[in-house]
Write a structure and sequence with these properties.
single chain, 146 residues, alpha+beta, Alpha-Beta Plaits, 3-stranded antiparallel β-sheet, 2 helices, 8 strands, elongated
Length: 146
Amino acid sequence: MLETQEYDCPYCGEPAEAVLDLSGGDQQYVEDCPVCCRPIVFALYTDGVDWTGCSSGGRLMRRIYEPRDLLEAEMLIGMLAGEGIDAFLTGRHLIGAVGELPVSGLLALMVSDDQAARASELIAGYNGALPLPGDEPDSYPGELLC
């Protein structure tokens, strides 16, 4: 069961319309503003017939990191989730179209504005990690393998 809901973009303030799928149960998803193209987090709570809440303006998202590939992106999402930070990956579905699109900048990790500093700190720690002496595999000296 699909319904539409009007909202104002939390970034540019322009009115827009979202299509809500009530048949999918409670959901959280990211949709870009049709005017300014910035990501908006929607939280939909439904009993399958009526929806009881849809918030779009409460959480501004910030792009904090461009992973090298999908594997690194998923690993970082898991790491951040372990620290209680919800992260969203943009560009996941563009990976198959690399022949048509630029090679870099397709993937991006997004977190809510209020968690961006902590998430960036954790990712910087991940990028700066070094293997413990003696834990380096012989085939990859000087590299940390997870």
